[in-house]
Design a protein that fits this description.
Blueprint: H1 8-15, H2 32-35, H3 44-48, H4 56-71, H5 75-87, H6 92-101, H7 104-110, H8 117-125, E1 129-131, E2 134-135, E3 148-151, H9 159-167, E4 177-180, E5 185-188, H10 203-210
Antiparallel strand pairs: 1-2, 1-3, 3-5, 4-5
Amino acid sequence: MARYLGPACKLCRRQGQKLFLKGERCYSPKCALERRDYPPGERGQASHFRRRRPSDYERQLREKQKVRRIYGILERQFRRYFREAERQSGLTGENLLSLLERRLDNAVYRLGLADSRAQARQLVQHGHFTVNGRRVNIPSYLLKVGDVVAVREQSRKLDYFKNRAEMLDSQRVVGWLSLDLGALGGRVLSLPRREDIDLPIDEHLVVEFYSR
């Protein structure tokens, strides 16, 4: 499955804001954006000081790129999500975010079983999780209301998940999920709503970009 393999910190610097792609590192002084708050590249620092008003197209493009980078999705797959959101009833932008939130790797991250979506994706690919008792290793697997996500019995013996279990006592999860400490997982209570998604995203700009 295709995914971005380049430096994650450069994406945050290119975006000009933290996208929290590397878990705890993003909250520490080691964060690249804390040390170099200008775009990467030879002309990055010079362009940082050139103030100009971005065009509508640039604002739309940057917002679309930001959403893609947050969820770790390449353009072709992201465009498919958008087309699916268009076919659904309701607001296209909110439908799009709901689809992205329901990805299995995102749910694992939201449940606190990984420090970042990239780490959650890797854990899913390695087969550490089940959905409704069945092993699933597809990060893009779309969850439905009532689905139960859990760590496999064999995987619970690993030191990583033992340490995670101790951390989950203080973990707060989003409203559309419930946390099950015993099973190291959770249940999908409802479809994600816009108020459940605590990300600095203007989905209307993404819709405008694809509606040009």
